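Throughout this chapter, every protein is written as a compact record of paired, labelled lines. An example of such a record is reproduced below:
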Amino acid sequence: MGSEHKPPVTLRTLADQLGLHVSTVSRVLHAKPDEGARAASEATVERIRKLADELGYRPNPHATSLRTRRSNLVGVLVPRLSDIVLATIYEGIEEAAAEHGLSTFVTNTRDVPDVQRARTEMVLGRRVDGLIFGDAYIDAEFLSGIAARGVPFVLVSRRAGEHPSVTCDDYQGGRLAAEHLLSLGHRTVAVVAGEPYASTGIDRTAGFVDTYRDAGVPVPGSRIVHTPFDARGGRLGAEKLLTQHPLPSAIFAVNDFAAIGAIGAARDRGLRAGTDLAVVGFNDTPLAAELPIPLTTIRSPMHEMGYRGLSLLVRLMAGEDVESQRLAPTLMVRASSTG
């Protein structure tokens, strides 16, 4: 014998049992966490929520979106969520979204423009209230088209054009890496600079190179190589740099995984990081301090970046004028540069 099918619990069900108008019940149950007290008296709010819990009431998100013309949904686009930096940023986005009564979902674009365009249209098709891009190209051409359609969005991790963004102050981070290596006496240095379309690599490299130039030690273009941001890219970049003469005494890689790849390339040539070759990374991912030779790196406030990015989007969706935010980096000195 099957169990008797029970009709769904609706706002009308609750209102009838409580002897209240359905609009009162709706205001209480659909209010944001900090707004429930303004929807009815404290005693009424408690009665409504207690009965809703007892009967197992669940809001109908489709009906809610029709009433408010909002989905309370934010789409997030990143190159790949397997990257610990992007995963940490997304955790910050999710935390802030929950505080604002929003839901998020994420899709990977692999940093491929055609995929980015297709995935953005897919996300917009889900009637999101706003977007967060973690895969911006520096030329901002695609993003300008999205802005022209009136879609509110915020960039995280990377900047592009004048679009609102929350990033690390990557230029300052590059300066910190250069000042550290200069203080150790390194004058023949090289850079594994990441992809040429991403502001992260561009700005970190610029801060590093400008600081060396200001110190009277220009870094030749031949000692700056562009590679993917992963460990394999860092290895390939370092292999090119370690064929040059004279050998660089230090390498700055614009993220930690590229730095790990550079350490591997050095090891294969009989060079020990921190003793024969100083290596500095960027981001301070959890792995950096736990390597056999702990990695000197620039700490980027990844979680805060995501949290602030979502908070900025909420303000933008509310019609406020917003400004981009640059978060301060921190130098973390470890054995890969000091031995």
User: Anything to note?
Assistant: The first strand starts at residue 73 and ends at 78.
